[in-house]
Amino acid sequence: MIPTNIYQKHLTAIRNTLCAIFLVSSLTGPSEASYSKPRLINVRVSVAKDKDKLVLGVKGHYTIQAVNSDLTLARGRYLKKEVIIPTNSGIKLGDKEFKVYCIRIIPKKDATIFIGKNRFRGIVDIIRTEKLKLMVVNHLDIEKYLYGVLYHETPHYWPMDALKAQAIAARTFALYRIENMRDRDYDVTSDIYSQVYGGKSSERRRTTKAVRATRSKILAYNGKVLPAYYHSICAGHTENAKGVFEIDLLPLRGRSCPYCRGARGMNWKSMFSYKQMEDRLNKYGISAKGINFIAEGKRDRSGRLEEVKIRDSKGVKKIKGYKFRLALGPNMIKSANFRIRITPKGVIFRGKGWGHGVGMCQWGAFGMAKRRFNYRQILDFYYPGAKIKNYNEVIRF
Ligand SMILES: [Zn+2]
Predict the structure, then answer these.
(1) Can you give the pTM of this predicted structure?
(2) What is residue 67's predicted lDDT score, i.e. its pLDDT?
C-alpha cells in the first residue's frame, strides 16, 4: 500500500514550493528569448517504498533540507555512503538524527545521488512513513527521467527509429500520468506497472540520443495528451483500450499488426494448480473458494479473452481476462490471449504475446524500423489519428 496519508500530512507545505505536485518552471528568466524556450516539467518517481533501511551517498556538492520548513540540515561536497533508518522521531543518517519526517537531498550541478547501487539525477526526497518505513521519491525533469526509462523499455541497440518512437510514447505516457495523478504523492512508480526506471545507472548513449532527438515531442489526440500505452508483443493484433483501461479513443481501438511476427518470447506456457490460482485470485481481491473447474470465455476481435470462467463452491464466476492475468501474475500469464487445458498435473495455459496489448507493440515497432519505416510512420501505425506535437502546445498546466 502507498503510504499517502503520512506523505500528505508532512508534505502539504511543499506543494506550494519546489516539490509541488508537479513542477513547471521556465528555463530562463524573463529575457526576450524566453518565450520560445520550453518549460521544464518534473516527474515524481516513486523509486522505493516500505524499506526498513537504505544506503545513501552523494558524489558532489549537496544540501539536505527539511522539506516542510526549508531548513538546511546538512551540506557538503561529498557524502560517504551511509545507512538511513526511520526512527520514532524522524530519520537517522549515519550517526545523525534529523527530527523531521521528510528530508530532501538537493544535488548541485552534476552531483549524483546514490540510493543503494542506483544513481539518480535530480532531487531525492526520503520520507519516513507512519508505519516506520522509508519511501523514496525522485523529482527530475521529464527528459532526464526518460534517459533512465528508455534503456529498460527498449534494447539500446535497436534501430534508432524504434528508439525514437519509444521515446515519444514514453514521454507521452509520463505526461498523461502527471496530468492524472495530481492528488497522489508521485506520478509514476519505477516498475512494470508504469514505466521501468533505473535512474542514471540505466542510461545508454543511443537511448539518450533518441530522447534528445525527440525532445518535447508527444502524441496528442483532439488537443489532449494521448494515454499512449504500449506493450512488448501484440502477437498479431493490438487490443482495444476500452476493455482494459475503459478508455475509448480512436487511436487506441486496436489494429492488426504483422510486424512482430517471429519475435522472441512470442509464445509462452505456464501451469497452476487450482489451489495456487485460488490463492492468487484472493490476494488480488477476487474471492474464490474451492475452485474445481476453469474454462475460456468470450474472446474479443484481437483474440484476447474477455472473460475466464471459473467454478468454485459457490458456482460459476466470470472474471475479466486482463484481471485474471494480473491476478495470476503478468509475468506468468504474459497476455490475455491464451488457451486453457486441464490436466491431472494442473491447469496449463498456453498463450501468445506479452503485455496488455494496448497501443504500440514494441516488437512491431522494431519490425517496422527494420523495414525502414521512420518513427513518425511507426507512431502513426500504432496510434492512428494521433498527432505528434510539442508538449508546450498541448499541456495546460
Ligand atoms: Zn505486434
Answers:
(1) 0.80
(2) 84
